[in-house]
């Protein structure tokens, strides 16, 4: 073993030791360096409850084979999935570097990356290579919209993840709701999980200014207990923001750059904030049929109508904050909003120098009876994993699973430090709330493929005055035709 590799491994073990002895569930950090890798927090209990998957995978010696990851990434500076050539003090870089070195050492494999800074160009290259019999890439990380992974499934170039015996897709390091919603006839071709650090940026969530919470008598601990008890609902949110808007400049209207808001929220119906509130409240855009072999759309029902009424209460004029994300983030950052709706990426990219403390909460349920929280994700994020059909199944399965498990166990806790700047001790419940968000990521087929335009129709209802029945009436015949064609291509790819 050369000296450079020895030193790197020693650094890894030192980092892990620090992580193991750190305080639990979002405890206070002490470092002053913005890019510290000391791991001031450990995962919540759920994060440590799983058995060691690396041991379960058993012994595999791949003889130094290359394991090449294609990062087909529209935003590589923002959606980071690749590390540099060495440790450099950056949290994400160093965590990925340590992970890859450890997995390389355990399985005698050579992990490398090819980055293409246009997602469609990258997935097109993957498709071309696979169809030519090229096994250059062992795994791909990309988006699923915009002609990328979601499109090339029908070309037969992506392996069925459910067939790979080494992938435990129902475990904590993979999104179980993806498997529930995107497995059709025993086949699923892409998913997401801790293997991609970009996953930590893409779930939709709610932010709460904890300093303002004291002023408005919002008990943050009681709020977290509501979440734990499964009782954090749309009604609970509405009750806390109702009546808080203030026309600070006295001009008779709510200005996103000047006034105070109970909930800072984007009011542009073309944005996915509208459908996020609906889907996270338990409305399914599409369902897998009972036999698991097809898809059905059942949006037009009493529950959907009930949830739409509640969501519209968040979008009436007295709550509006504007139609640009910059307004939303500025209002919250400047202390002019008690709550804010956005993705977790706001914490990393817009709120890093926010003076007030804040916390993140999962999106509310529609009703207490809802089975679990849902954390609707941004499907444009470069965080979705696929394996090409030309990859060696054992190599691809073992290493992909190992990378995902390691990331869940050791990188997820560090993501809390990135998200909350825990060195400033945002609050004691941070990691626990984020665990709930990251463990309930969800999408379904209709979000990705918009059968007959039914998903778009639901959006228009949530953000306007149109009735659901009339919005869907002209869409269902085409939706059923689209579904029939899609199912055939998915099953017989």
Give a short account of the largest sheet: 4 strands, mixed
Give the number of DSSP strands. 12
CATH topology of the largest domain: D-Maltodextrin-Binding Protein, domain 2
Widest beta sheet: strand line-up: 2-1-3-11
> Runs with pLDDT <50, length 5+?
1-46
Spatial shape = globular
Query: Number of helical segments?
Result: 20
| Straight-line distance between termini | 45 Å
Tell me, what is the CATH class of the largest domain? Alpha Beta
CATH superfamily of the largest domain: Periplasmic binding protein-like II
Rg calc: 23 Å
What's the average pLDDT? Answer: 84
- Beta fraction of the residues? 5-15%
Task: Explain what you see.
This protein has 493 residues and is an alpha/beta fold. The chain folds into two domains: 3-12 and 37-200 and 379-441, D-Maltodextrin-Binding Protein, domain 2; 202-378 and 446-491, D-Maltodextrin-Binding Protein, domain 2 (3-Layer(aba) Sandwich). It is 40% helix and 11% strand. It has helices at residues 3-21, 45-48, 53-57, 91-107, 119-131, 149-152, 176-182, 210-215, 220-228, 234-241, 273-280, 302-312, 325-333, 345-349, 393-420, 430-438, 445-449, 454-462, 468-473, 476-491, and strands at residues 65-72, 109-116, 139-142, 204-209, 261-264, 287-288, 295-296, 337-343, 358-361, 375-376, 384-386, 441-442. Helix 4 links the parallel strand 1 and strand 2. The longest helix has 28 residues, at 393-420.
């Amino acid at each position: 073993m050369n000296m450079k590799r020895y030193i790197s491994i020693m650094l890894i073990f030192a980092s892990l030791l620090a992580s193991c002895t750190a305080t639990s569930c979002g405890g206070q950090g002490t470092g002053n360096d913005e890019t510290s890798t000391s791991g001031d927090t450990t995962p919540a209990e759920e994060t440590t409850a799983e058995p060691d998957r690396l041991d379960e995978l058993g012994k595999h010696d791949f003889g130094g084979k290359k394991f090449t990851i294609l990062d087909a990434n529209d935003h590589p500076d923002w959606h980071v999935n690749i590390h540099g050539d060495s440790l450099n003090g950056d949290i994400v870089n160093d965590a990925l570097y340590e992970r890859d070195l450890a997995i390389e050492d355990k399985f005698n494999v050579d992990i490398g990356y090819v980055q293409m800074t246009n997602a469609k160009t990258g997935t097109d290259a993957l498709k071309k290579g696979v169809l030519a019999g090229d096994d250059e890439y062992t795994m791909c990380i990309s988006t699923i919209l915009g002609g990328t992974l979601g499109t090339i499934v029908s070309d037969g170039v992506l392996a069925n993840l459910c067939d790979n015996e080494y992938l435990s897709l129902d475990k904590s390091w993979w999104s179980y709701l993806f498997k529930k919603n995107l497995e059709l006839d025993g086949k699923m071709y892409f998913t997401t999980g801790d293997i991609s650090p970009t996953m930590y940026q893409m779930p939709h969530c709610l932010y709460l200014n904890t300093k303002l919470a004291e002023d408005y008598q919002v008990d943050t601990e009681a709020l977290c207990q509501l979440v734990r008890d499964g009782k954090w609902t749309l009604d609970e949110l509405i009750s806390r923001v109702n009546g808080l808007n203030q026309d600070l400049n006295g001009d008779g209207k709510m200005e996103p750059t000047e006034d105070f808001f109970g909930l800072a929220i984007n009011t542009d119906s073309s944005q996915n904030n509208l459908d996020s509130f609906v889907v996270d409240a338990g409305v399914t855009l599409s369902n897998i049929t009972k036999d698991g072999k097809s898809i059905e759309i059942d949006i037009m029902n009493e529950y959907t109508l009930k949830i739409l009424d509640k969501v519209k209460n968040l979008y009436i004029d007295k709550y509006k904050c504007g139609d640009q994300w910059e307004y939303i983030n500025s209002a919250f950052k400047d202390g002019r909003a008690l709550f804010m709706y956005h993705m977790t990426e706001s914490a990393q990219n817009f709120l890093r120098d926010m003076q007030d403390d804040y916390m993140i909460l999962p999106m509310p349920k529609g009703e207490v009876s809802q089975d679990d929280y849902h954390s609707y994700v941004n499907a444009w994020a470069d965080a979705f994993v696929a394996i090409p059909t030309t990859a060696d199944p054992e190599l691809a399965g073992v290493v992909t699973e190992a990378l995902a498990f390691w990331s869940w166990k050791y990188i997820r806790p560090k993501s809390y430090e990135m998200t909350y700047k825990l060195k400033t001790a945002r609050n004691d419940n941070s990691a626990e709330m984020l665990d709930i968000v990251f463990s309930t990521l969800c999408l379904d087929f209709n979000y990705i493929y918009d059968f007959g335009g039914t998903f778009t129709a639901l959006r228009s209802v949530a953000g306007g005055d149109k009735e659901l029945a009339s919005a869907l009436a002209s869409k269902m015949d085409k939706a059923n035709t689209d579904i029939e064609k899609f199912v055939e291509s998915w099953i017989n790819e």
